[in-house]
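Entry 14. Structure prediction run on the chain below.
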Amino acid sequence: MLEEIYSECEENMNSSVGHMHRDFKTLRTGKVTTTVLENVKIDYYGTQTPLDQVGSVLATDATTIVVNPWEKNLLGDIESAIAAANIGVNPNNDGDQIKLFFPPMTVEQRQETVKKMKGIGEDTKVSIRNDRKHSNDQIKKLEKDKEITTDESKTAQEKIQKTTDTFTAQIDSVLKDKEQEILKV
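Output returned:
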């Protein structure tokens, strides 16, 4: 029973860290990537559809993204969806494709990105602490129901805490590395 709690806890914590990494991909760093458009969706025949499913999205160089829709009648919809997403640039529609020109990031923009990144990291730590609390509550319930002894409960909670500490240290390490990457001009 305890092994199930351990594995569920670790699985949930891994999931939280994975979610953090996905959120990091939407942040802009020095070199522009197509992931800044990951959350942009357009109305495609009544369905909210991700941009990469209605056309090709390519980073042609370090500061330019080109969106080439498969259906030219979607250009206006794509342009307005990108403008509404507020990603920091205005879309340029040339009648065939949409180009996004990202200026080099200023020091203030880099610091703002680091602030957002740290917020994402803190949210992930909160999620991990919630996972720890949930697991500890399950262990305490087993102890209360006399399915495990007090010593087993204490040992299990210590093991959950060690797992929590490992994941927290992993998050801190990732945040430190990412901060250096973003602030590097």
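The chain has a mean pLDDT of 89.
Filed with the rest of this week's runs.
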